[in-house]
Amino acid sequence: MKKAEIGNVIEFKEGLKGVVEKVNENSVIVDLTYMKNYRELELEEKTVVNHKNYKIIDQ
Questions:
Q1: What is the number of alpha carbons within 13 Å of residue 42 lying toward its C-beta?
Q2: What is the mean pLDDT of each run of 10 residues along the chain (59 residues)?
Q3: Which pLDDT score is estimated for 56?
Q4: From the centroid of its chain, how far is CA 28?
Q5: CA atoms lying within 13 Å on the CB side of residue 15
Q6: Taking the mean position of all CA atoms in its chain, how far away is CA 32?
Q7: Closest-CA residue to 11 (of 35, 46, 42)
Q8: What pLDDT does 1 receive?
Q9: Residue 56's closest CA among 28, 25, 24?
């Protein structure tokens, strides 16, 4: 499995999308404000996603 890099857009958890801001050994930190409906979903601005739990949709 290819690890995401800073700036990649990833998809995880049944359709959530975000921009990778930092790559760690086992996970990435993702900015969720990329999504147009971010405010409606009442999510935190950033989240951590394990490398096993996402797919890269835009590089």
A1: 0
A2: 94 95 97 94 95 94
A3: 97
A4: 7
A5: 4
A6: 7
A7: 35
A8: 73
A9: 28
Q: Considering Cα of 36, then 39, then 44, then 45, what sign does the dihedral take?
A: positive
Q: Residue 14 burial (CB < 10 Å; 0-12/13-18/19+)?
A: exposed
Round to whole Å and give the CA distance between 54 and 46: 15
Per 3-state DSSP, what percentage of the chain is helix, strand, and coil (rounded to 5)?
15, 45, 35
Instruction: Quote the CA–CA distance of 48 and 54 in Å, as a whole number.
Output: 11
* Side chain identity, residue 2: K
| Contact indicator for 54, 11 with CB cutoff of 8 Å | yes
